[in-house]
């Protein structure tokens, strides 16, 4: 059996007048902020997509869904994730598991973790226990700590028989 590991990272700015979508779930930020970006700016799903592509040295999401392409404006990132999973499966690989950590001061993410995991797992054709989503604050340090943005780190493991 062959194994591959992939690492992904993403960050988006928090701005007024945008929805806050993480793991396909629409959340309320206490200051009314949301993530800025060309698509729905779902930083969690973007980090997972980059980890999947990275595991097979297929580049990054900017290559497949360029921000200057109108086609992806306001795109539902879970749909883009499905396309990336299809690329992986076409090459004969399957996902063993995903793990991720969101870095955000607010809102409290814990109540939403289970729904994020099941939404991501459903789109990837996985069981919820194959998708780890964790959340941490940045102890008020750095860009995430000042609520200038929300970032996410993800790793995936792929196998091929
Ligand atoms: Zn992104």
- Spell the H/E element sequence: EEEEHHHEHEHE
CATH top level class name: Alpha Beta
CATH superfamily heading: 2-C-methyl-D-erythritol 2,4-cyclodiphosphate synthase
Unreliable segments of 5+ consecutive residues = none
Counting DSSP H or I runs of 4 or more residues, the number of helices is 5
Shape: globular
CATH architecture: 2-Layer Sandwich
Average residue-wise pLDDT? 97
Describe the structure.
This protein has 161 residues and is an alpha+beta fold. It has one domain (2-160): 2-C-methyl-D-erythritol 2,4-cyclodiphosphate synthase (60s Ribosomal Protein L30, Chain: A, 2-Layer Sandwich), CATH 3.30.1330.50. It has helices at residues 43-55, 61-64, 77-90, 113-124, 142-145; strands spanning 2-16, 20-22, 25-27, 33-35, 94-103, 131-136, 149-160. A five-stranded mixed β-sheet has the order 4-1-7-5-6. α4 (113-124) links the parallel β5 and β6. The longest helix has 14 residues, at 77-90. It starts with a strand and ends with a strand. The chain binds zinc ion. Zinc ion binds at residues 10, 12, 37, 43, 46.
Features:
161 residues; alpha+beta; 60s Ribosomal Protein L30, Chain: A; five-stranded mixed β-sheet; two-stranded antiparallel sheet; 29% helix; binds zinc ion
In short:
This protein is of the alpha+beta class. Helix content is 29%, strand content 32%. Residues 10, 12, 37, 43, 46 line the site of zinc ion.
């Amino acid at each position: 059996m062959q194994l591959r590991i992939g690492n992904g990272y993403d960050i988006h700015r928090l701005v007024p007048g945008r929805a806050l979508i993480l793991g396909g779930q629409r959340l309320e930020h206490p200051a009314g902020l949301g993530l800025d970006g060309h698509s729905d700016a779902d930083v969690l799903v973007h980090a997972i997509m980059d980890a999947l592509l990275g595991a097979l040295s297929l580049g990054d999401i900017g290559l497949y869904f360029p921000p200057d392409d109108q086609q992806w404006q306001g795109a539902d990132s879970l749909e883009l994730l499905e396309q990336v999973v299809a690329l992986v499966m076409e090459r004969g690989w399957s996902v063993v598991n995903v793990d991720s950590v969101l870095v955000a001061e607010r809102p409290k993410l814990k109540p939403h973790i289970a729904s994020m995991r099941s939404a991501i797992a459903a789109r990837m054709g996985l069981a919820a226990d194959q998708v780890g989503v964790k959340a941490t604050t940045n102890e008020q340090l750095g860009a995430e700590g000042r609520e200038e943005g929300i970032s996410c780190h993800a790793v995936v493991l792929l196998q091929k028989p």
